[in-house]
Amino acid sequence: MRSAFPRTALLSASRASRFLPAHRPVRFYSIKAEAASHSKQRPMDASRLTVEKTKTPKPLSKPEDLVFGKQFTDHMLAIEWTKEDGWLEPRITPYQNLSLDPATCVFHYAFECFEGMKAYRDKNGDIRLFRPDKNMARLNKSAARIALPTFEPTALIELIAKLTKLDARFIPAHRGYSLYLRPTLIGTQSTLGVGAPGSALLFVIASPVGPYYPTGFKAVSLEATNYAVRAWPGGVGDKKLGANYAPCIVPQQEAASRGFQQNLWLFGEEEYVTEVGTMNMFAVLKDKATGQKELVTAPLDGTILEGVTRDSVLQLARERLAPEGWKISERKFTMRELAEASKEGRLLEAFGAGTAAIVSPIRKISWKGELVDCGLKETEESGEIAAKVKEWMEAIQYGDVEHEWSVKV
Amino acid sequence: MRSAFPRTALLSASRASRFLPAHRPVRFYSIKAEAASHSKQRPMDASRLTVEKTKTPKPLSKPEDLVFGKQFTDHMLAIEWTKEDGWLEPRITPYQNLSLDPATCVFHYAFECFEGMKAYRDKNGDIRLFRPDKNMARLNKSAARIALPTFEPTALIELIAKLTKLDARFIPAHRGYSLYLRPTLIGTQSTLGVGAPGSALLFVIASPVGPYYPTGFKAVSLEATNYAVRAWPGGVGDKKLGANYAPCIVPQQEAASRGFQQNLWLFGEEEYVTEVGTMNMFAVLKDKATGQKELVTAPLDGTILEGVTRDSVLQLARERLAPEGWKISERKFTMRELAEASKEGRLLEAFGAGTAAIVSPIRKISWKGELVDCGLKETEESGEIAAKVKEWMEAIQYGDVEHEWSVKV
Fold it and tell me: Can you tell which superkingdom this protein's organism belongs to (chains A, B) (predicted)?
């Protein structure tokens, strides 16, 4: 699949340095990779990891100065894949730029998918990941959908754990803080024909982050978007592809221009409620006839991102709310249903759910000229369930309670 | 919008060299850009172009060895944009890698759009672009849809003309050959928050290409895809975004695994015919009652790429076929309609249309277990209209006839 055409000096560097600046080659790695070039496709193998530590450690930012996804740790993890050889040696190197041919397919055809996950420091100082198996499974599903290579989940978890431990000093020992981890898989073939990439790069970068709501919850207001559609049946809206994100910005800006913090994605003539900005959406409804409380979220019908937080909220609610008489529903629900429930005082609360904020309480939703009230009192920034869910989730994430979802590294 | 966090040495280079390797800074450019950092947003300005010629010109490939999008010319055009300053000085430099922070938004959220256009050498040796204004207009529409900056079309055409002339030696003086130009616009902000990029890079690379069918037309067979959906009303399928391409590969591979060269995208329960692989789709039908011939293609309803070749075919057909009694239609048509017409001998031919091949004749379409015959005799590789359209288009593209669509550079 490689070009026979003589490339520039910058590009003629060894395979190992194809994506890292030419003045920083890792020679022994290059030689090993060349020697293996006729072997069969190799699986991802954490035992082959090489680590090059930085010689210029970064100063730590003050915790209060952290901004989501702006500051990064000293190191990154990088694993190249080629069609001929499979996964090459994993490498932890100093955080550095990628050097890529301008014809690389990630720039043209969006061969890219990613995950968002977090590492937490517990009260003993240990580092914990939250349900990393879910992120690995989703990344593999995303990769397969766009013809990128899949990998062994346990191998990548082990490698991410090593990166996390190496850069553990960046995780502040304060509640609400964590290390946001961003595994990213990109196609790296540098030809313009539209086809499955013959090479790829999986990298992981890490960004220390503070609490999403440093001074406590702050409820947001949404604008329901019906002029643009995020996802559709048979499409790729349930995968964590880069392709699903860039088209969301303009509707988000439109909502912001009218004073709403996020947009709410509706689907179809029925105006089904699907997602909030880049979060899953939950509502708490009271049944008109029986008064039974229901926690409802849209089903995984291919148009909804399969959120790890969404799944966790559902599981915890089934364990802890269902025994108290709650109904926990994954079902389609419409904006009209929310509006009616609101008018009748039966929309008790609503919130978005995602890795960044865990839950994001919603005050009101602008829809067809009306403002749908989501049940919060003027003095409240969160409903009871949103607050409970956040507490439950953090207790597990920070290891206050032992739970199989929290994995010490 | 920029991180206040100290970056690595590689990243602390001047703005001008942010995306080009650190050992190749263009000093005077950097200084100018800094000096302008408090001015208002500037428009793209071709008169500010700087040119750095390569010191190591590439040898030319033999024309017969050219593979689409694999070989590139000596130079590239690059124009950076920042929210603060607007479009910075355009630069033509040696073709070289881009050096990008791994947090750059193009890798995560698919902030990327592109164009495909060609430069042709005419019989006098002059170089001609084909309808470059259409490509510029579409690139601006694509950019605006994903919150990337727009630009002055005439400025970019002028800059592309300069790149084309500088690398004109790569365009073989043979019919069927051309220089494929790939303007690409990517978001370059290196933070993980999902929002409008505060910086971007527009670059143009050029690849000499040979005739799509070196030994004459070769008709393809298609598999109609109904398990995956390329585009949706209110989605972005009518824009030339990277996001629309990666999800197409698996359905294409599925079709190939069953012996079909391309897939045909259907839409909805009605199974409307939309696009062929990455081309627009045309069919020639004979009316059941009147016998009138109809050239039909799907309308621009937001689910169809607004192809420049599609538009050109329609215009030429309206000028040259309509006076002969043809009906030229942009309307919805279904797979069932094609299948019925085929059975009744009224599907005279079908073809895809796009920049790469101009037209790609279709022999048959696999749909729900049947093979829909598209009207070619076994010994034929093209219908009459596909062959005519190719001839008409090439006569204009290669300047055999003077036409406003063909622009000398």
Answer: Eukaryota
List chain A residues with CB under 8 Å of B227. 234
Taking the Cβ of residue B253 and every Cβ of chain A, the question of whether any pair is shorter than 8 Å is answered with yes
| Helix, strand, coil percentages, rounded to 5, for chain A | 25, 30, 45
- CA nearest B229: which of B191, B260, B263? B263
Q: What is the nearest CA distance from A66 to chain B, expressed in angstroms? A: 9
Residue B53: burial class (beta carbons within 10 Å; 0-12, 13-18, 19+): exposed
Helix residue spans in B132-182 (DSSP H): 132-145, 153-166
B-chain residues within 8 Å CB-CB of A23? 23
Contact A73, A200 (CB under 8 A): no
Q: CA–CA separation, B84 vs B87, rounded Å?
A: 9
Chain B residue closest in CA terms to A110:
B242
Question: Which residues 157-216 of B are in CB contact (within 8 Å) with A?
Answer: 180, 182, 184, 186-187, 191-196, 203, 205, 207
User: Å from A289 to nearest chain B CA?
Assistant: 37
Query: Cβ distance B128 to A265 under 8 Å?
Result: no
Who among A192, A229, A249 is closest to B235 (CB)? A229
Contacts of B203 in chain A (CB under 8 A): 102
pLDDT in tens, chain A (409 residues): 233 322 222 222 333 334 444 333 332 222 233 333 445 799 999 999 999 999 999 999 999 999 999 999 999 999 999 999 999 999 999 999 999 999 999 999 999 999 999 999 999 999 999 999 999 999 999 999 999 999 999 999 999 999 999 999 999 998 999 999 999 999 999 999 999 999 999 999 999 999 888 888 999 999 999 899 999 999 999 999 999 999 999 999 999 999 999 999 999 999 999 999 889 999 999 999 999 999 999 999 999 999 999 999 999 999 999 999 999 999 999 999 999 999 999 999 999 999 989 999 999 999 999 999 999 999 999 999 999 999 999 999 999 999 999 999 9
Half-sphere CA count of B123, side-chain side, radius 13 A:
7
Measured in angstroms, the CA of A19 and the nearest CA of chain B are apart by 9
A12 touches chain B (CB under 8 A): no
Mutating which of B24, B249, B355 best tests the A interface, going by the most A Cβ atoms within 10 A?
B249
Angle between helices B308-320 and B132-145 (to 10 degrees): 140
B360 interaction partners in chain A (CB closer than 8 Å)? none
pTM (predicted TM-score): 0.91
